Predict the 3D structure of the following.
Amino acid sequence: MDAAAAEQSKSEQRIGLLNGFAAYGMWGLVPLFWPLLKPAGAGEILAHRMAWSLVVVGVALLAVRRWAWAGELIRQPRKLGLVTIAAAVITVNWGVYIWAVNSGHVVEASLGYFINPLVTIAMGVLLLGERLRPVQWAAVAVGLAAVLVLAFGYGQPPWISLCLAFSFATYGLVKKKVGLSGLESLAAETAIQFLPAVGFLVWLGVRGDATFGTEGGFGHGALLAATGVVTAIPLVCFGAAAIRVPLATLGMLQYLAPVFQFLLGILYFHEAMPPERWAGFGLVWLALTLLTWDAVRGARRTAVRLAAARASAVPVAGRDTEPMTPAAGREAESSV
């Protein structure tokens, strides 16, 4: 890799990092928005979110005049299938999250995003055949213990947390494989979601259960329409980050969102935190601390090796990715 290409790669990764910070910061604060949409139920909010997101993305595409990718995507059945899977799993993620926040489960929802890096690691082992280092195995074991402690405290497994963690881990993995830019990927996903969403809203209207245009006047309708903006901006940022930085880095940045959500759940929504819940969260944070320490140690070791290689003028054939998440071992092929 020549100097110009190396500088271009660094520039792309910086852009990816900024987009990642923006995406996770906005997701961390979004629990403040969903309660504003009551009395609309989670299903209606979800349908509006899917429909208005396509409108927002369509306007953005008209502004930048980028349409050639759509024809190319239609001619690639495998990639189109991956986009359909991404649309399906993010629909599940959105719906569960909206219901959780508006039903008083913000803390449990935050747990889903705390354990997401551990789920991502497990998916890497089970689906991609990746091998973990001892510290990573220890982190996964501690994470499993945390789920068991929380299951004991709740009287059942933390289904909300597990559903959010698995759906978003799958979404990130699929988007890495698709390789579209943030705006284009979101446009494709929301195009797939649009007709089912509109059909559901029409059905609600026929039943007389829709709140859009019937409850709260113009303000309520405007807030429902704003779900497109609230959805599109962080997802575009996330998509831009996913194709520019390693999944290991995204896993590190992802801690921002659940930290904000957890604090909002306790300090703003005043949700209960009994001792067993603190114990479970403590184990999760211990697991994440182990992962972070292992990743930092690996990054330092890699930096030392690269510095030694440059000093001796020996070309470096590859790089040590120190994977923490799925596909990290394949980053040389898939990241820009």
User: Anything to note?
Assistant: Residues 96 and 280 are 21 Å apart (CA to CA).
